[in-house]
Amino acid sequence: MDKRIVSLLPSCTEIICKLGYKENLVGISHECDYPNSISGLPVLTKARLSSKGTSIEINQSVTDLLQRGLSVYDVDASLLKSLSPDIIVTQAQCEACAVSLDQVKDIVSNWTLNKTEIISLEPNTLNEVWLGFDIIAKTMNAPESYSILKSEINERFKLLKDKLKGIEQKPAVLCIEWIEPIMVAANWVPELVGLAGGMNVMSVSGTDSKFCSWDEIKQTNPDIIIMMPCGFGIKSTLEDIDYLQNRKGWQELKAVKKNKVFVVDGNQYFNRPGPRLLDSAEILAEIIHPDYFERKYSEDSWITIDS
User: Fold this and answer.
1) What is the CA radius of gyration of the chain?
2) Are 19 and 146 in contact (CB under 8 A)?
3) What is the pLDDT of residues 246-266, one digit of tens each?
4) Does the structural domain 5-147 have CATH classification 3.40.50.1980?
């Protein structure tokens, strides 16, 4: 019997589809928007706050909810039960990013004769991201589906490394995950920067993203600045960029002087620990070493910010 899957995280939905189990999906979260073929599936979650505000407004709203002991997201418990999932895929990594593991456990614990398996993916590094693929494949009793995909992953990363052979200069790259207050991207992002031929600054692979001061950024003075706010596309990021550009000393930064400030689609690529981290690495390579990589990603993926 085919297993029925509910995915409450966009990255998990992408993993499930990439492994070939789209037809097993019976429900998704409100943020699951890729691939397009999942549109029409029952949506089980909604946010308790608006995603239309500025970065500072969203940060304050999330902080207020969490300080009151409330979840950022609601789950339609009745609909979830009616879908009779064999597997629910969620996360316990970030209460601000998606429905929490504890929420799901609380809901499922009230079901009688419950045999639903809950999988929580909590990656902090690229290897842990790929491990999530393996876990889902094995849960579906089809470990070979991950083996095939792993070959593709290895091949694309090998192509990157081969093109970067002999490159001695690795520019200092600062990746910003939130604009106001400023947060520096960590987790798997430093590894992606390294694979793309850059030297990540101000964060460490495998650790949580952290807030930093403007003085720290000025002192670091990176060669390249890449903005990838969590949950933001390029348009939303551009609406908030004044928070950085209006800071004292912005025009004196090396990255600004050299026209090396970029905005990428963090929501679709860098913030999602799924298959498109491969694309994320390739986007970074185009940005960091344009002389070695012909641009293939459109302006929907990344743009240069004029000084």
Assistant:
1) 20
2) yes
3) 999 999 999 999 999 999 999
4) yes
